[in-house]
From TrEMBL, chain A:
<dbReference type="InterPro" id="IPR002645">
    <property type="entry name" value="STAS_dom"/>
</dbReference>
<dbReference type="InterPro" id="IPR036513">
    <property type="entry name" value="STAS_dom_sf"/>
</dbReference>
<dbReference type="InterPro" id="IPR025751">
    <property type="entry name" value="RsbRD_N_dom"/>
</dbReference>
<keyword id="KW-0597">Phosphoprotein</keyword>
<dbReference type="InterPro" id="IPR051932">
    <property type="entry name" value="Bact_StressResp_Reg"/>
</dbReference>
<dbReference type="Pfam" id="PF14361">
    <property type="entry name" value="RsbRD_N"/>
</dbReference>
<dbReference type="Pfam" id="PF01740">
    <property type="entry name" value="STAS"/>
</dbReference>
<feature type="domain" description="STAS">
    <location>
        <begin position="158"/>
        <end position="269"/>
    </location>
</feature>
<protein>
    <submittedName>
        <fullName>STAS domain-containing protein</fullName>
    </submittedName>
</protein>
Length: 287, 140
């Protein structure tokens, strides 16, 4: 595309914008998401201005050119704001692609030479396609960020420290114990021990589906860290099938205090703290 | 591997990141439940798969896991094939020893998985990749 044509397009900015908006208003999927066509006009005018200002005869074929950054930044912002307004990615893409039709219509009227019109159409088409792709990528990145932050929140939520008794805290672990999760578990548990001035921590793994060598290694590290604080750690909730698997795997957990149930871990903890749970005989008057 | 095996059911899972391991374990569990495998063998199989898939991810840069329901005579089983195009294992005999690791792990992955599975087969070519196949029979 020659700089002449770009200058031409710049001078016909108003016609392109009118074409574009007229097309959007006619389109079937023009929903009620915009309160008025004024919003659509303002947004479209902004996008078209940035496009016409940044585009040159060189960067139209070089999408990684740094002078196109303002355009792609604007597209990113536009995608995010439209997504928040409830537009589907399809609607946003169709909106961007319809700019192509508006541009090509004006080009068809401006360029008389067929060969030139063909190459220019190809260039413009490719360029707008790429803007559409950028918009789509932004949309997906936004979604991925939401998923990642949700999984972080879940990791936080699912590792509560429970004070069971004076000096005893427990933490039930539900789900897979991967490296990131272990870090959260360890931090919360160590902080819990300090905050509650506990001398015994019970780590219940009833809800952990499988204990492989990495999970075992994480457990061993957690127990060592707890011992450094001068507290003791009991691992409870070892199911029979887990016990067999760990033995077959060849992992030695014998240096740790392990119990089958949380109840037996608690009993052990009471014994260690020289506490006793007794049934109290009911007073005769209550009978 | 002994006996004749007929294939009824198969599925491929691609392992590229740690969260793929969770999907892989869950799929293996579904397969094991489908053939009526008991909870102990299920757990052994899932743990073996977890070790091997993680090995593949850490040392092989990811790869594919092929799950298959197989049978020997009247007994069904699950066959799992792990294939990567990683650097390969230079000394398989050494890698199969308890406590040997080139990384920071416990070195229990390969030998542990072999003990947990009913049948275990490994082949590796340096520079080309590694293939590990395990079978866990329903009552094996």
């Amino acid at each position: 595309m020659t700089s002449n044509i770009i200058a031409d397009l710049q001078s016909k900015r108003n016609i392109i914008l009118e074409n574009w908006i007229a097309q959007r208003e006619l389109a079937e999927d023009f929903g009620g998401n915009f309160n008025s066509t004024d919003d659509l006009k303002t947004q479209s005018a902004e996008l078209l201005d940035i496009l016409l200002q940044t585009i040159t005869s060189q960067n139209i074929n070089d999408l990684y050119s740094s002078d196109l950054e303002p355009l792609f930044d604007y597209i990113g912002g536009l995608t995010v704001s439209r997504a928040k307004q409830g537009f589907s990615p399809r609607e946003t893409a169709v909106y961007i692609f319809s700019l192509k039709d508006a541009l090509l219509k004006v080009l068809g009227e401006t360029i008389s030479d067929n060969r030139e019109l063909y190459t220019t159409t190809l260039e413009v088409s490719k360029f707008i396609d790429n803007i559409g792709i950028t918009s789509f990528e932004t949309f997906i990145r936004g979604r991925e960020e939401v998923i990642l932050s949700q999984s972080d929140e879940m990791a936080e939520l699912s590792t509560p420290v429970i004070k069971v008794w004076d000096g005893i805290i427990a933490m039930p672990i539900i789900g897979t114990l991967d490296s990131a999760r272990t870090q959260v578990v360890m931090e919360n548990l160590l902080q819990g021990i300090v905050d509650n001035e506990s001398s015994i921590a019970i780590l219940d793994i009833s809800g952990v589906p499988a204990v492989d060598s990495l999970v075992a290694q994480h457990l061993i590290k957690t127990v060592s860290a707890i011992r450094l604080l001068g507290a003791d750690c009991i691992i409870s909730g070892i199911r029979p099938e887990i016990a067999q698997t760990v033995v077959h795997l060849g992992i030695d957990l014998s240096k740790m205090v392990t119990k089958a149930t949380l109840a037996s871990a608690l009993k052990y903890a009471f014994a260690a703290l020289q506490l006793e749970v007794r049934r109290v005989a009911k007073e005769k008057s209550n009978l | 591997m002994t006996g004749t095996m007929t294939t009824n059911n198969r599925e491929t899972i691609i392992i590229q990141q740690e969260r793929d391991l969770i999907i892989c374990r869950n799929r293996v569990k579904d397969f094991a439940v489908r053939i009526g495998m008991g909870i102990v063998n299920q757990t052994k199989l899932i743990t073996a798969v977890s070790e091997l898939a993680r090995n593949m991810l850490i040392y092989g840069g990811g790869g594919s896991v092929l799950l298959e329901v197989v049978s020997r005579g009247r007994e069904p089983g699950i066959s799992v094939v792990f294939q990567d195009k990683g650097p390969g294992i230079a000394d398989i005999t050494k890698a199969m020893q308890d406590g040997f690791t080139t990384g920071k792990s416990m070195g229990m992955g390969l030998p542990g998985a072999k003990r947990l599975a009913s049948e275990f087969f490994i082949d590796s070519v340096v520079g080309k990749g590694t293939i590990v196949k395990i079978i866990k029979w329903k009552n094996g």
